[in-house]
Design goal:
The chain is mostly helical. Helices cover 60% and strands 6% of the residues.
Length: 168
């Protein structure tokens, strides 16, 4: 028999958890988890996730990119336009079908992505500097599990979910 966690005396813990998740989301968005140092090390969440996906999976069309991220093609088209304009992503012809367009991380995009990743890694090191290695591993594991559960719930609900398969 499955019990509803909100009715079995866990409400105080769940209240704290939902509040801390809300605070985390706000702080992450405010800083864009830009890492340390200058503001130039920050990057819009959508841009970061798109560049990261292209880096991990290689060149792909808009539809494939949208499907892999769990968002619609029109959203990808809108979000990738400024990345093309700034030279972080380039559009090329599909190798097998010259009429189709493929999005690809440019060398400038690769360098920018690595700059942001490096800055974010440094921030994570600073924020968890006094943690034991086991605590970092546990936090990473639990956060990954939480994000996976959230993505799965959104998929079941038919809602576009956050791109959660590319940890960085």
């Amino acid at each position: 028999m499955s019990m509803d966690m909100t009715t079995v005396g866990d409400t105080g813990l769940l209240e704290t958890l939902q509040h801390e998740v809300a605070v985390f989301a706000r702080r992450a968005e405010q800083t864009r988890l830009g890492g340390v140092g200058q503001v130039r090390n920050s990057m819009d969440r959508a841009a970061y996730l798109l560049l990261n996906r292209l880096d991990k999976e290689g060149p792909m069309g808009v539809k494939a990119l949208a499907a892999s991220m769990g968002i619609d093609s029109s959203t990808v088209t809108r979000q990738v336009a400024p990345l093309v304009d700034t030279g972080l992503v380039k559009r090329t012809s599909h190798p097998e079908d010259g009429r189709a367009v493929v999005l690809q991380l440019s060398p400038r995009g690769q360098a920018r992505l690595e700059e942001v990743r490096s800055s974010r890694r440094q921030l994570m090191a600073e924020l968890t500097g006094d943690w034991e290695p086991e605590e970092r591993e546990a936090f990473c594991s639990l956060l990954t599990r939480f994000n996976s559960a959230l993505s799965a719930r959104m998929a079941v609900s038919g809602l576009p979910g956050p791109e959660a398969q590319s940890p960085s």
